[in-house]
Amino acid sequence: MTTTAPPEGTEHTEAPGEPGRGGLAVFGDAAREYASRLRGGDVGALPAVLGLLALFVVFTALRPNRFTTPFNFANLVHQSAAVIVIAMGLIFILLLGEIDLSAGYTAGTAAAVMGIVVTQRGWPWWIAVIACLVTGAVVGTVIGWLVARLGIPSFVVTLAAFLGLQGVLLKLIGEGGTISIRDETLVAINNDDLPVLLGWLVCLVTIAGYAWVSLRRTAVRRAAGLQHTALPVALTRIALVAALLVAGTAYLSIERSPNPNVTSLRGVPIVVLLLLVLLVGLNFVLTRTSFGRHVYAVGGNAEAARRAGINVWRVKLTCFMISSTLAATAGILLASRDNSISPTTGGADTLLYAVGAAVIGGTSLFGGKGRVVDAVLGGLVIGVIINGMGLLSQPSSVVYMVTGLVLLVAASVDALSRRRAASTGRL
Amino acid sequence: MTGPSQQDAPPPPPGGGADPLLSLRGVNKSFGAVHVLQDVDLDVFAGQVTALVGDNGAGKSTLIKGIAGIHPFDSGSYVFGGEHVSVTNPKQANALGIEVVYQDLALCDNLDIVHNLFLGREVTSNGLLDEAAMERRATETLAGLSVRTVRSIRQHVASLSGGQRQTVAIARAVIWNSRLVILDEPTAALGVAQTEQVLKLVRRLADNGLGVVLISHNLNDVVQVADNVAVLYLGRTAAQVDAGAVSRNQIVELITSGRTGSIGLAANGTAAEVGELPDLPVPVDPARPSDEVTR
């Protein structure tokens, strides 16, 4: 279902000292534990996963020949990638209980810087990418400094940045103009696929890595005599993840070009590799490092964090830097996808879709609760809605209304589970 | 001035003559024009519970924030473990082995017990969080405090009762082999049974050899667990005496008027006990509400 464990790692545990239980009993225990967490309001990623499944079923039923095709799935990934990456960055901000309204235009502005470096200056693509990421980091530093050090509400600071960066973007690309990206590498990032063999290699490495991490965690905890996941449960979870990844890779490895004789289109999109690296890396930072723990602490109770000796403003500043740098990364994906940068790159609904993605995935707007994988799940939900409604030839009006409705449902689930959690003491 | 009588005899110094773990002499703290602490003295002894009492606004919170390095003192001597030290931020206080358990608990509801116990001082190996080591040590610490009321140390703090939360906060203070633990009103919002539980824990800390400072408005708590009592009155030390040497009424009198018999501040503002306090006028306000103390 997911490639990450929740930060608290409490699910499906067996008490130490009863290793004699085997067979189906541990699955029963795990299921009961999970059911009790759901009843307690700790719904985690379940709504997003169920929503995703429901949308797939609906669109497959309505447009079996257009929606459920390898071509469309690859397309879906390309379309959603930028929103997912922005949402990943926003999770760091939302965990603090803050908001970044400017992430979309940070993406656009950073992409424009990249475009200028690579076209007007004619420098190699990697310098342009570095310039793009540095732009994002600088924007994040300024916003973070204003919010964390001067204590200006992030809503106001990032609203100002939202307006200001829109102007900077216009200034950079010229009124009404566009910058086209012709650099092959940059265009490939969010348009091309990995060679089929490499795609399978990535798939297998990911499965092996996931299996190693989860089995090792179980072994360490078992050796220390602490509560640990029952082995059959851990193996089942690994098998599920493996099956999902293998199925996805196989599906995307099917030839999907409408005219294979002219040009072949098969393999896992390059951008999937980028998403995977970001997902694993950022999840690692949030769950396995002191910094990540401090992010949750600041979001949960900033005063408690301060008294515990955590440098609250530095944590906040770092989160804004991470978020804006990821927004710049999304800017690269947007520019690559469109082969150009226009005044609307990163504008319009980009930011709101990203916030929606994080919330649909299960990240709370009140801080202290959220995971990186939420961005992927929520981003895919948004992506599927936009993609599917497009295939149904629905006008924009309907697409907007449906997207709004889904976001509302997600927010309601969050609010209801929060109320439930408050009454049962889980958060 | 009343004449000398048996009751007015100066009480024996607290601590039974041992060297104090923490000794403050003549500390001052101002916030702008407000002189919150004026030449305050305080001694805390290892293995003893020192109750710090005083009316609202007497300077108790400011005093412990100064000890903890949150709002460093402006002047005065700060001797810890027999050495003059300078404590200007919480990390330095922690490094000395001074821990504060705050009234509003300062726990993160969205984290579990282990995470809260190690908040800000996570155990890492190779730069990564060492969950197994933290969980083991948390289990040991809670067992060492004879805490058996929590179901799982992996449950979120949000699901704990008031007494359990207070227990977690106290456990956090002792997990680092601390030497001095300061408790700010640990029983304020607790029921009778939970108060009892927490007071036993406080006593156990002192019996384990820690110096304990207990801030409380509840004189029942003070009488029950304290070895000696330090009274602040309008930012000055009214007295610090053995708990057995004063009656409850005398403590109330010290809190509300700064003196009782020969103990406490003299009417002209100098301490009857500690002669070296400067001659400053003491604003006397007999109308100060005292219902909270005498309740």
Task: Walk me through the structure.
Chain A has 427 residues and is an all-alpha fold. Chain A is built from 16 helices and four strands. Chain A has helices at 24-39, 46-62, 70-95, 103-120, 125-148, 154-173, 184-189, 196-223, 231-253, 270-288, 290-300, 302-307, 312-338, 350-361, 372-391, 396-424; strands at 13-14, 179-180, 228-229, 340-341. In chain A, the strands form two sheets. In chain A, strands 1-3 form a two-stranded antiparallel sheet. In chain A, strands 2-4 form a two-stranded antiparallel sheet. The longest helix of chain A has 29 residues, at 396-424. Chain A is globular. Chain B is of the alpha/beta class and 295 residues long. In chain B, 28% of the residues lie in helices and 24% in strands. Chain B has helices spanning 60-67, 90-96, 113-117, 131-144, 162-174, 192-207, 219-225, 248-257, 291-294, and strands at residues 22-31, 34-44, 49-54, 75-80, 83-84, 98-101, 124-125, 128-129, 180-184, 211-215, 228-233, 236-242, 259-260, 263-264. In chain B, the strands form four sheets. Chain B has a six-stranded mixed β-sheet with strand order 6-9-10-3-11-12, sandwiched between helices. In chain B, a hairpin with a 2-residue loop joins β1 and β2. In chain B, α5 runs parallel beside α6 (192-207). The longest helix of chain B is centred in the last third of the chain and has 16 residues, at 192-207. The two termini of chain B are 28 Å apart.
Give me the secondary-structure topology.
The complex is a heterodimer of chains A (427) and B (295).
Chain A (H helix, E strand, L loop, with lengths): L12 E2 L9 H16 L6 H17 L7 H26 L7 H18 L4 H24 L5 H20 L5 E2 L3 H6 L6 H28 L4 E2 L1 H23 L16 H19 L1 H11 L1 H6 L4 H27 L1 E2 L8 H12 L10 H20 L4 H29 L3
Antiparallel strand pairs in A: 1-3, 2-4
Helix pairs in contact in A: 2-15, 3-10, 3-13, 3-14, 3-15, 4-5, 4-6, 4-13, 5-6, 5-13, 8-9, 10-11, 11-13, 14-15, 14-16, 15-16
Chain B lengths: L21 E10 L2 E11 L4 E6 L5 H8 L7 E6 L2 E2 L5 H7 L1 E4 L11 H5 L6 E2 L2 E2 L1 H14 L17 H13 L5 E5 L7 H16 L3 E5 L3 H7 L2 E6 L2 E7 L5 H10 L1 E2 L2 E2 L26 H4 L1
Parallel strand pairs in B: 3-10, 3-11, 6-9, 9-10
Antiparallel strand pairs in B: 1-2, 1-4, 4-5, 7-8, 11-12, 13-14
Helix pairs in contact in B: 5-6
